Amino acid sequence: MAPPAPPLSRIFAELDPSPVPEGRVVPPALPEREVHVSGSAELSARPDRARVSLRLGSRKEAAAAARSSVSRRLQYIAHTARLHGVPEENMTVTEDFSRVENTYQMEAEVCIIFSDFGKMQIVCNLLIEKLGTSVTISPPHFYHTPEAIDTLRRQVCVTAVGNTRRKAQEVCRLFGQALGKPLLIKEEETKEWGSHTDSHLSHSADSQTLQERIQNATAYASCRVFAVFEIKAKENRRHKLL
């Protein structure tokens, strides 16, 4: 026996495009109203860290005397740095003990990283005043942390986008239009230059001033973006009042 035929489906409604009368031309769809613009920005960032190296030593006939002489000065250096807000993890001490002829020689190097350059100068001046020629302080080496470079990259990109949007607004205003929402924002080119990382730090001449060293370690970045914005026609003022 053959299976029963499936019930007939019924169509409740069907929407067909209205037929176009012969001879009538259908106007083409209006193209999207857009404004295409490009913009750029260039920013700089001064170094946010400085590394200072201090060297000191002592040569005595007795080993304990050589160690004690250096140890007292190391304690004073660490105490002075802590008083001016330098955390313990930003201080590194390297010691070397050796025997030279009939004497014992103790040498030490202290590396201090500063984030406040004003306090760095105060600490260095105090150490020179109190320890004199018994300590040698190298000129500061300025550099950027990775976080500072990331901040510079974000800021220059955001600034370039802002400049591009303002340019698009001025173009629309010139033709009596209003700027709409962004349809596309594309970062086309970025450039970075300058001494902005610790590994690429250049050893400046001792004759340079502190401000010259900071300027030489300044990082620069530029960014160019391309953007597409929607154009909104301004509403008729009379229509708004109604």
TrEMBL record:
One of its GO terms (cellular component) is nucleus. It comes from the Eukaryota. The gene is Irak1bp1. Pfam families: SIMPL. Keywords: Cytoplasm, Nucleus. It is found in: Cytoplasm; Nucleus. Its main location: cytoplasm. This is IKBP1 protein. GO terms for biological process: immune response; positive regulation of canonical NF-kappaB signal transduction. It comes from Erythrocercus mccallii. Belongs to the IRAK1BP1 family. Transmembrane segments: none annotated. InterPro entries: IRAK1BP1 (IPR030312), SIMPL/DUF541 (IPR007497).
